[in-house]
Specification:
With 594 residues, this protein is an alpha+beta fold. It contains 19 helices and 16 strands. The chain folds into 3 domains: 1-172, no CATH class; 237-464, Alpha-Beta Plaits (2-Layer Sandwich); 512-590, no CATH class. Residues 1-117, 129-133 and 147-192 have low confidence and may be disordered. Residues 51-80 are annotated as: Disordered. InterPro entries: ESRP (IPR050666), Nucleotide-bd_a/b_plait_sf (IPR012677), RBD_domain_sf (IPR035979).
Length: 594
């Protein structure tokens, strides 16, 4: 048996291909090819089965060494046909001849005998200037652009153990252009693939995977320094800003009028923090009082004192055509007016304190901060404005009410917020965003329904800590946000694939490759677990996997959510416990404890 090492001229990175050839003697063929009208000798070598073989290194694409052929061996010229059988005559191979037949049909005896006595079908005359005798010199360098042989810098030692590294240049290129080329060729002589991959990774991921196996220990993977997930709703915190209350305001009062009334010099919160909250009854759409948040309590107190001095000086504070009362208020009053149907709680600042369950008066027990009916009516005020007489003069009021609701909603109380309640708020957000976008396009009210109001609504929804990455991806799709804008709102890549994460969210500031590395670990491990299951269970999982996204693998099977009324009443805290526990179980199976 002899070994045939073939270099594929169509590939920049030549890979060795070994084909078994049956032969009594080792035969060495020179192959001739055409390049720009000039024939050049190159290609395949059938090595002798001696103890000393040629060495081929895959670390560089054009490293090769050949075993010296036996002295005196004749070299008939032929052309490679990408097949070992094309290099052998029928008499040598010991098989019936199919020379000249592509389909492999049998030929006549005369044709067979004729094929035996002639050269192979791809025979070509030998290139002039090249000796047919075997010498100790290696065969010419394979280069389609050169017809004269080997460049002076590319040398191959006759010793199989000595290999000189060279750089491959595609045909027809100037070898001396260097860095001045428009698209210079990369020189990989001094760069290993592993270092290239590390350079593309973030420092956090390189530190995490800096082990011999490339996999961290379990305790390192769960370290908060590297663990990229958190409970999204827990990012919300209770604030205790100073609050000023404006009473007896006109029904059609605008947000800009309230800010102008208090003065630009007053230290109101930034516009991005939505400091103005004009209370609206969600059922009747009636405008109530207005609240304004200040940076500190002292700033709010100074604003109230200034208006009190104006009253003492005989100048009554007016907003529109109405005299307005300005008084110092609190977060408790703001939260109570903003969530009037929240029973069974007492507000301690912006934090709710829940009363004990009262079985004798169930109507006084806590059922939620907002009801689904409130969210539905909030949308109806926009869809059917002629049935809402109070919002006829202020069509922007339902949108501003939703902005205040999302901004002040106590999302951090995850053990009291259910999946269905959050879905009701999210559904109302999507509907109002769609309706506002349509009103702006149709120019229904260019004074009140503006692009600024639309941007405020989208920004508040994207910053809402209670919404999942999938929910925010739906909102970004409605708003046609770019990838950079989504990333600014801490959205992960492929957020549309986070379909079964009802509490998990990416940690702010965590590199994207770290997040995807953890997801890849979860996906691969759950795939291995699925294969190890019994056939019946595996078949069921495969059928269900066709109906969902598999970016997270079989993470949904690990959690085992049971959809229905029980799932709707599940709290965000319970969902977070189930998801984080599932992640820890999967990582424990994928990584070593130490």
């Amino acid at each position: 048996m002899s070994s045939l090492t073939s270099l594929n001229p169509q590939s920049a990175a030549w890979l060795p291909q070994e084909t078994s050839v049956s032969s009594n003697e080792s035969e060495l063929y020179w192959l001739s090819g055409r390049e720009r009208g000039t024939r050049t000798a190159f290609a395949s070598v059938v090595q002798s089965p001696e103890p000393q073989h040629g060495v081929y290194s895959q670390s560089h694409h054009n490293e090769r060494a050949f075993s010296p052929p036996q002295a005196g061996a004749g070299l008939p010229s032929s052309h490679s046909c990408h097949s070992a059988s094309a290099l052998l005559s029928p008499s040598t191979s010991g098989r019936l001849s199919y020379v000249g037949s592509v389909s492999g049909t049998m030929k006549s005896p005369d044709y067979t005998r004729l094929g035996t006595l002639t050269e192979p079908r791809n025979f070509a005359p030998q290139t002039s200037g090249l000796s047919a005798a075997v010498t100790s010199e290696p065969p010419p360098k394979f280069d389609l652009s050169l017809a004269t042989g080997v460049r002076k810098n590319d040398t191959v030692s006759t010793n199989a153990q000595t290999i000189v590294h060279t750089t491959y240049y595609p045909p027809g290129t100037d070898h001396d252009i260097g860095s001045t080329a428009i698209v210079p060729f990369a020189d990989h002589r001094h760069v290993s693939p592993h270092s290239q991959i590390q350079n593309l990774r973030s420092d956090t991921l390189n530190h995490l995977t800096a082990t011999e196996s490339g996999l961290p220990a379990l305790h390192n993977a769960l370290d908060p320094q590297y663990f990229p997930f958190l409970e999204g709703a827990r990012q919300a915190v209770a604030t205790n800003h100073g609050v000023v209350k404006l009473k007896n305001i006109p029904f059609a009062t605008k947000r800009s009028e309230v800010i102008a009334f208090l003065g630009r010099n007053s230290k109101i919160l930034n516009d991005a923090d939505e400091p103005v909250h004009i209370i609206m009854e969600r059922v009747t759409s009636k405008t109530m009082d207005a609240y304004v948040e200040f940076v500190t309590l002292d700033d709010a107190n100074k604003a109230v004192e200034r208006h009190q001095q104006n009253i003492l000086g005989g100048r009554i504070s007016r907003l529109g055509d109405r005299p307005v009362e300005v008084e110092l208020s609190s977060q408790e009053s703001l939260m109570k007016d903003l969530f009037p149907l929240a029973k069974g709680i007492m507000w301690n600042g912006a934090s709710p304190q829940f009363k004990p369950l009262n079985p004798n008066e169930p109507w006084e027990n806590f059922k939620g901060f907002v009801s689904e009916e409130e969210m539905i009516m909030l949308v109806k005020h926009v869809e059917v404005p002629h049935r809402s007489p109070f919002s006829k003069d202020c069509p922007q009021r339902p949108y501003e009410c939703l902005i205040s609701t999302l901004k002040k909603f106590p999302w951090y109380v995850t053990d009291r917020i259910t999946i269905s309640q959050r879905h009701a708020v999210f559904k109302a957000t999507c509907e109002l965003a769609r309706l506002l976008s349509r009103s702006i396009q149709k120019q229904d009210d260019q004074v009140n329904l503006t692009h600024q109001l639309y941007r405020r609504l989208i920004a508040t929804a994207m910053k809402c800590p209670g919404f999942t990455p999938l929910m925010k991806d739906d909102i970004s799709y409605l708003a046609n946000l770019s990838d950079m804008e989504e990333r600014w709102y801490n959205q992960p890549r492929f957020a549309s694939c986070w379909r079964h994460q009802y509490s998990l969210a990416p940690k702010p500031g965590m590199p994207l490759d770290v997040i995807e590395w953890y997801i890849a670990m979860i996906r691969e491990q759950t795939h291995r677990d699925m294969v190890a299951r019994p056939h019946v269970e595996r078949t069921i999982l495969l059928e269900k996997s066709q109906e969902t996204d598999m970016y997270w693998g079989y993470f949904w099977a690990e959690i085992g959510y049971m959809f229905g009324p029980a799932f709707d009443q599940m709290t965000l805290s319970q969902a977070a416990h189930a998801e984080f526990t599932a992640v820890e179980r999967i990582l424990a199976r994928a990584l070593t404890p130490q």
